[in-house]
Amino acid sequence: MTIGPERRANLRRGRAWSCRRRWVSAAGIVWVAASLACAASITPPATPSAPAYADYIFPQPPQKGADQRLAAQHRKAWELLQSGDLMGASNEYSALVQRAPGYVPAEVGLGYVLLAQHKAKDAMARFDHAIRVAPAYAPAYAGRAEAHLAAGQRELALASFESALKIDPTLSDLGRRIEMIKFAQVRGLVAAAKRAGDEGRLEEARRGYAEAIRASPESAVLYRDLGGIETRLNAIGDAVQHLRKSVALDGGDPRAFAALGDALEKQGDLEGAVEAYQRAVTLDGSDATRRTLDRLREPASTARFPAEYRSIPQLPQVTRGDLAALLGVRLQGVLAAPGTSGPTVVATDVRDHWASTWIMAVTRSNVMEVYPNHTFQPAEAVRRVDMAQVVARVVAMVAPGVGKSFMRPTIPDVPADHLSYPDVAVAVSSGIMGLVDGGMFRPSRALSGAEAVDVVDRLARLAKKPRTDTVGGAW
Questions:
Q1: Each residue of 411-464: pLDDT tens digit?
Q2: CA neighbours within 13 Å on the CB side: how many for 27?
Q3: Fold assignment, 189-302
Q4: pLDDT > 80? residue 162
Q5: Of 181, 179, 180, 207, the residue nearest 194 (C-alpha)
Q6: 416 burial class (0-12, 13-18, 19+ CB within 10 angstroms)?
Q7: How far apart are CA 362 and CA 365, in angstroms?
Q8: Is the domain 23-171 a CATH 1.10.10.60 member?
Q9: What is the torsion angle, in degrees rounded to the nearest 10, for the CA atoms of residue 264, residue 265, residue 267 and residue 268?
Q10: Cβ(355)–Cβ(325) below 8 Å
Q11: How far is CA 62 from CA 30, 43, 45, 277, 331, in A?
């Protein structure tokens, strides 16, 4: 049977219409059945120039089981979008969505076009619809993230980007976008927290830094700044904890070590404070940090000693026990030097005294004496003349050659025939003790704690000078 040209044309139109009906009605079924999560990546269509929207993720069509004519039209629409032809892309995607309502790549593509047209709300509706149809389609989440960004919703954008990357780890560029959002979040939080701290709104600053740390938990600077705010709030325990975390993350930040030293000092841990400031000086060496370290060294060195010892500088009058402790601590090297220790001395009244160890040290070296009745009498007040006797004995130990050449000064209230004149003359001529009240020594005046500390410190400095009776020797 012969078929004419008109009949053949009608048959062709009928087959085309039949195919189109099957194509449109089956599009949604085909999409849902397609294994997008397991499909290999499809290279986005090439554009003749640099993409106009390089951050947009190409909505890949399913690799298997889908009509290639849908994919071809989708690629054509995407090319128009990336070339900047938003009207052409909109027309192509609108037609494609109308003809194949269940074709998710077209839904996402149209969402991107709407986003490029600054219609974030309409774009969001497209992306949400695509996610409802295909909950495991990563480009739909990436598109929704872009819509959230356009609406200024950074936290929602971050969550959508993270969902997209979790679904498809091959979308490595999303990692960069995620880090950028986190960085912007942290930067905003830190700026607000710093401003609050500068303006004295310390609790607000504390909350801001804590929130920034939750977003960036490995930032040493954030822990340092939070610790500084907590120190100002007198939340010293928390400050020390966060500052230790800061220096653990970054051991090269002198500001963090100095802040840790400040917090430890306020906590009462002077030895820890000195250690932290020493590290800060090593890293930075600023004059202010050095001054703080110098200020803390002395109290830190005595922090482990009894409270009675630490209170000596404030005493209006020192006792023999107090003086023995000062000498035992600050002249330890002198008292323990070879040849200075004599036979064991028995003192019957110091066994339970807080300074008993140091009392035994000064009596063995004969810097201080036990009374003939074998008592030391640690509670007895020390006079200036008693201190002069101790000075003369220590000078004889550390600088015997110099001691013999000291001048014999004229001291009105301690004449040359005074029993204590030799000791007083050495104490004054050596510069260890001074005259008072217009040239008087006042031998019977009680010695204060501050005076005792000053005299013993002068003896310690003299002990560090080279000895004159030996060659090359030095204390």
A1: 999 999 999 999 999 999 999 999 999 999 999 999 999 999 999 999 999 888
A2: 24
A3: 1.25.40
A4: yes
A5: 207
A6: exposed
A7: 5
A8: no
A9: 120
A10: yes
A11: 9, 12, 15, 63, 87
